[in-house]
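May I ask for whichever protein you like with its backbone structure tokens?
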Amino acid sequence: MDWNSRRTTAIIENALQEDRATRDATSYACVDASQRATGTILAKQDCILAGIGCVARILDVYAELDGAVTSHYEVTTHPEIFDGIRLHKGQSVAVIRHNARVVLSCERVILNFMQRLSGIATLTRKFVDAISGAHARILDTRKTVPGLRTLDKYAVRCGGGHNHRLDLSDGVLIKNNHIALAGGVGPALERAHQNRRGEQVIEIEVRSLDELDEALKHGAEAILLDNMPVETVKRAVERSSQASRHIPLEVSGGITLENVRAYAETGVNFISVGALTHSAPAVDMSLRVGPV
């Protein structure tokens, strides 16, 4: 993850400006301008860590916005602490040594990023663990917080999942609304083959075995089985295996931790789960601050 990229820097800058971090009235009123402090980030529950790199970058961007912050700072972590590891309740994640006002002013932004990203990584790991040993891979979707997609999808990778399309330009995925406007599965696929850019794989969403047969007939290169019961997915896998070419199969819709194993054992290649990014609960973390 490139925490120094323009896109990520803009996200962090917007978060600090939203919180008016450089205009922290309480810290200005209560804390001496020259005081230094130590802030320790703690995990308050077992989780998968994601976002540790945001800490130093938030402090750097704060300094750029403030213009007056020149004091040296340190962010230290244990060598075994890095994104993707499993943290235990009470475990120290990182220690910040900096100007006390800066630590307090950046506290909430730091925790908001780390709690959200670690929450996504933690939920993703639960799905990955649930299908351990199966052939399928867990995918995310584009159901992300507007503006935070690169971070959300990074957190999925930290949890052991894989990224689907990053955006609408990143592959052809014909969904039910495209099919309705094109006049059916066949016409939609025919137009996609005529108009696609470069070598992008053409994937199409189907909601029945009849639509599956039509997709196979008209040259689908990957197929998304949408909201199908497990037994129907098994039949879809069997039908697809009889095609003259290998067709990757993805399943989505109604996937939970309770049923994901059953779907994985049908033989599909991918299982996409929107909940990874749209419903992951934030991990509980805290930042304990004290004088140096």
Observations:
- The chain has two domains: 6-128+281-291, 129-278.
- The two ends are 31 Å apart (CA to CA).
